[in-house]
Amino acid sequence: MKSYEQLFIDGRWVTPVKKATFETVDPSTEQVIAKVASATAEDVDLAVKAARRAFDEGPWPRMSGADRAAVLRRIGKGIRDRIQELGEIEVRDNGKPLPEALWDLGDAAGCFEYYAGLAEELDVSAETSITLSDDRFSSVARKEPVGVAGAIIPWNFPMLMAAWKVAPALAAGCTMVLKPSELTPLTALELADIAAEADLPPGVLNVVTGLGEDAGAPLSEHPGIDKLAFTGSVPTGCRIMQAAARDIKNISLELGGKSPFIVFDDSDIDAAVEWIMFGIFWNQGEVCSATSRVLVQRGIYERLIGRLKEETQKITVGNGLQENVLLGPLVSKGQYDKVLGAVERGVSGGARLVVGGGRPSHLDKGFFMEPVVFADVPADSWVWNEEIFGPVVCIRPFDDEDEAVRSANDSRFGLAAAVMSRDSERCERVARALRAGIVWINCSQPTFTEAPWGGYKQSGIGRELGEWGLNNYLETKQITRYDSDKPWGWYIK
Ligand code: NAD
């Protein structure tokens, strides 16, 4: 594999000031796959200064939206042209099955193409005139790029999370410093190459790989950053918010979840089982919006759990590069231990372990586990309330709609929720009553670049994707003009 020991700053590959590296590990083999540049505060400072120069003096924010769109489209094409190679890198870095990695990469390319369209629209929509109550004045509202953005992203969808931030920021005319997760840094470095090949001007996108404390914290504290966009855990989000508070940086946060899935007893059981499984087992359950708390109406409770057990046992666990694997390893030893610890906590907390939790017998290396179904999970137990971020589904029965909605909303998180029933009026009613930023009816997880993404409560602040994602990177300025020939009249009468 090629060397990843340099950072991408000001359009060039540079060795980190302290020449430090860290290792990234293939979670299927536990082998080191690459040494990666480990940035510190000095490197972050260079990257922010490059982004600052590119914003304050460079062409990017001053170009037309159409010209920026052309570059974004070339980035999208660059991803598509190398999709197989990037997919394999993503699998080796993160562990996810190759079809899911290819799916992410197609979405990432689509995200650049979508925001190219919005960049073009900005040429006509950036300025709107405002009708004022005093006709001596005229006013327009102008959307302008917010400035230099810092983006800090997690490891579960490495390239896709980068795209969700880089594409709208660049479309808006911002410049950016991107810090990927130290667990999955490789595709962000590939993205830097793709952006350079797409003729993105130097300094517009800078990629600094490094540890959270060494590179993430200095980025979140840097006074040269105007906007911080973060996706990750609640505790880190809290630290980012504190850092941003020091100089009132504009922030958006996409944090964790413990999303409920309500299944009414008129549902088709096989369809419910498939969506429940997809909702918690795709991407190894390492999904912020995973529907990890399932509420099943009592009439079908035991039947559904029986079918879910049968189907869960059929899941092929293995190296994501092998065919027919549905569940890869967890991303790291740390995450593996955390999830196995949560399974023990589930059992000791009184949940019924229906299936899973062991190491698949054919796999003696790698952070692999059998997917877990817990039933009769006590409502006050740790596993019912906390994000596990692994292939572990917790299930409880309910009797009526009110109880289901109350239980679903009884959480400090509010990222996503799902409801399933053949009664469409009931689905609509429940969807409106759920306190979550994303609600799925008769499905769980499908995500569209055009639709807003983000959470209520401790699941975050702001929305990504769609026009909402673009607005994250725009400021609104009013320009008001005095059109009258007459004196204003404060002292000249
Ligand atoms: P994390 O918070 O540990 O790390 C996220 C990023 O923050 C990494 O790049 C890390 O290096 C960096 N970081 C760590 N400490 C930092 C600090 N002090 N200052 C600045 N940056 C720091 O999260 P993770 O384990 O990578 O990701 C899992 C979490 O992300 C889960 O809670 C999940 O729900 C959440 N997530 C949310 C969404 C969403 O859209 N809401 C999407 C994906 C993941």
UniProtKB/TrEMBL annotation:
Residues covered by the Aldehyde dehydrogenase domain? 13-479
Which keywords accompany this UniProt record?
Answer: NAD, Oxidoreductase
InterPro entries per UniProt = Ald_DH/histidinol_DH, Ald_DH_C, Ald_DH_CS_CYS, Ald_DH_CS_GLU, Ald_DH_N, Aldehyde_DH_dom
Q: Name one GO molecular function term.
A: oxidoreductase activity, acting on the aldehyde or oxo group of donors, NAD or NADP as acceptor
What is an example of a Pfam family matching this protein?
Aldedh
The UniProt entry annotates the active site at E254
The pathway entry for this protein reads as: Amine and polyamine biosynthesis; betaine biosynthesis via choline pathway; betaine from betaine aldehyde: step 1/1
What is stated as this protein's family in its record?
Answer: Belongs to the aldehyde dehydrogenase family.
Q: What is this protein called?
A: Aldehyde dehydrogenase family protein
* Native source organism of the sequence: Paraburkholderia franconis
